[in-house]
Amino acid sequence: MTASVQADWKVIAFRLKEEEYALPVQHVRSIEKMQPITRVPGTAHYVKGVINLRGVVTPIIDLRERFGFAPEPYGEQTRIIIVALEDMEVGLIVDAANDVLDLPAESIEPPPEAIGSVEASYIDGVAKVENRLLILLDLAKVLDR
Amino acid sequence: MDMSQYLDLFIDESKEHLQAINERLLELEKTPEDMSVVNDIFRSAHTLKGMSATMGFEDLANLTHQMENVLDGIRNRRLSVTPELLDVIFEAVDHLEAMISSIAAGGDGTRDVRRTVEQLKRIEQGEMPNKQAAREEPPLEHAYGEFEYHVLEQAKEQGFSVYEIRVRLRDDCLLKAARVYMVFEQLNEVGEIVKATPPVEMLEEEQFDREFLVTVVSKAPADELQKRLMGISEIDDVKVSRLSSDEPSAESEKAAAPQQPAAMEQAAAVQAEAEAPEKQTVKQATKTIRVNIERLDRLMNLFEELVVDRGRLEQISRELNHAELTETVERMSRISSDLQTIILNMRMVPVETVFNRFPRMVRQLARELGKKVRLDIIGADTELDRTVIDEIGDPLVHLIRNALDHGIEAPDVRAARGKPEEGIIQLRAYHSGNHVFIEIEDDGAGISREKVLQKAKSRGIVSPQAAEHLNDQQIYELIFAPGFSTAEKVSDISGRGVGLDVVKSTIESLGGTVSVDSQPGKGSLFSIQLPLTLSIISVLLVQIAEETYAIPLSSIIETALVKKEEIFSAHNQPVIDFRGKIVPLVRLKDVFAVPGAADDGDAVAVVIVRKGEKLAALAVDSFIGQQEVVLKSLGNYLSSVFAISGATILGDGRVALIIDCNALVK
């Protein structure tokens, strides 16, 4: 998936620490408020457990911990973004999510060598829209075990 | 005309017809003279041809057409049924199946079938794939179809006699067809020819050696017929034999010895006739409709939601303690339990749908391996949940291949061991309690204890020290260990690196177990135990600190409170004494690293669970209660979590994990 050949992207923008990230909207099923999570023993530390998402048991990943950031207590703004990739449905815990954006193809650039604090391998590219810098996540890498 | 709306129907029906053809072909192999079987196959092939031509699948129609021609030949007794001929027809059916699958998968159903079509054409023209087999035809003999039988019976009732006349022409006879014509002329003068073998068309074309057989009904005495025929020149010999009343039943009761009293044979023939139509009427009597399986799955999913809400309602009504509400909820619970039974039953499919491909597989493998094997299927009507049916096929294929390849010995070996040359594999299915058992038993060589031990040691599956303490049963179980394969030579049939461990893990993933027993020289028995249904199970909910877990009732023996001083230590492993047995104590809070778990109090609540013969005591904080829950998967992202087999949604909407006891009992 090279950014240069992509047409305009519709993305969901969300906040993690002080940075803004984006996921293509076709991968996003829904955005949920925080809800009780059942811990699943013996899984990776960033897998917080499973929730009952309208009758479907859905695993939840804390994106902060996935990227190795310090965990923060969940608050009013905390959201779970339910994403789907191939045959997997997973919820991602983020600090806040409230924006849907259209990213023109020309605004997207390949990832720089070092960007923010996220390991570059999770990143598909960066986009500059007005004054905002959005980091496009490579979902396959994020969900890679 | 847009055919796409008929496509699903076409695929479904084609599959049914192909299955019917498969089954009937195997039957035909056993009873090559049974024309009713050929007729059935012919009808299925004919329908298939018509449907595929309408749908525009040329290759399919073409191949079926050729097949139909050959079947027609068999029906008209121009061709005789030989294993080689059946091989070609089976091959054609294989092609047809592949084409239908291709169409079902969205393909166009084209396939290169020229070779098979060519072979069928050759057979149709009377050329046998194997000339040898064609010439080995048994001495001429009449077999009567149902219709002919009735004609003969009627003739007899009206005072005619039935004669079978064997006519042999002289070696130097030049105009065979002319002589045949004269014989027929003579016979027609005094009676009526009912049947000729070979058929009249072949006689007219001189497609026979020197001998032919005719059946005649006549009022004339036998010696008059004899005299009339002997008057024709170039006739070597004429044998006229009068048919007694029981002989025409030879077809239906071929095996029955003619010495048997005629009455008995009659009865048997009548019974055999009565049986076939009866089967059909039973099938017609139950009215069925075709329901797309996806709809059933959706129904099941919706019902699962209902079960979750039912749990929630039950909980609320308990909390509110309102008499009318409680009563209503109880009634609703009862109704939904009935509904559950019905829905689960609707999803039940007879194991036949899996079993019916095995006879062919066994036939083919047996031919490839040069072994003689008979497959007996018992309890094919046993029903299992569709989800289990979908998964159970491959493990069974593996076990049957295994029995054929490693179990049943070659015919000469069997003969040397004083066994009948034909080995028997028995495939049994039956219900017992809440489980379905599927067993595969062979009367082959059995499992060699020494070979298994030797291999297990060399593969590092058991240490030589541990091996000494194993009993026979434990040694046999070693064949299920990963990386184990006893085949001395890797054959095409089994032992392709995929071992029995895969069979075991597939069955365990279905919530079942598999075990093996064997008697050297006598054979082996593989026994699979499966739950009736996968989706709704009874569990015991238990509390560990703040977390709730569910333990399937099917693996629980009982619950108990154990005093602190009754917990002992053996080899650093805490154990308890349970009814005189030493049972290891597994503290779930340690296994699952439950946060905030307190130390044991004065007494520990334990759940005794079982895996086969082995027990374990699972220590929990408290018991919550028993509940019917819907088993859900953890999703593909969390595909394998240790000792957790799935999850369920409780009455309060929270998720509880279901414990996989098999992983905890060592």
Give the tally of β-strands of chain A. 11
CATH class of chain A: Mainly Beta
Query: Low-confidence runs of chain A (pLDDT<50, min 5 residues)?
Result: 1-5
**Shape by Cα distribution of chain A:** globular
Gap between N and C termini of chain A, in Å?
Answer: 20 Å
Work out the helicity level of chain A: under 10%
Tell how many strands the DSSP assignment of chain B holds: 22
CATH level-3 fold name of chain A: OB fold (Dihydrolipoamide Acetyltransferase, E2P)
Brief characterization of the structure:
By secondary structure, chain A is mainly β.
SSE blueprint:
The complex is a heterodimer of chains A (145) and B (666).
Chain A lengths: L8 E8 L2 E6 L3 E6 L13 E7 L2 E7 H4 L12 E7 L2 E7 L1 E8 L4 E2 L13 E7 L2 E6 L1 H4 L3
Parallel strand pairs in A: 2-11, 5-7
Antiparallel strand pairs in A: 1-2, 1-8, 3-6, 4-5, 6-7, 9-10, 10-11
Chain B lengths: L3 H27 L4 H21 L2 H18 L7 H22 L9 H11 L6 H5 L10 H12 L3 E9 L6 H15 E7 L2 H5 L6 E8 L3 H9 L4 E8 L19 H24 L7 H28 L2 H24 L1 E3 L1 H4 L2 H12 L3 E6 L4 E3 H22 L3 H6 L6 E10 L2 E8 L6 H10 L5 H5 L3 H6 L22 H10 L3 E7 L3 E9 L4 E9 L2 E6 L3 E8 L3 E4 L2 E6 L2 E7 H4 L11 E9 L2 E7 L1 E9 L13 E6 L5 E5 L1 H4 L2
Parallel strand pairs in B: 6-8, 13-22, 17-19
Antiparallel strand pairs in B: 1-3, 1-4, 2-3, 5-7, 8-9, 9-11, 10-11, 12-13, 12-20, 14-18, 15-16, 16-17, 18-19, 21-22
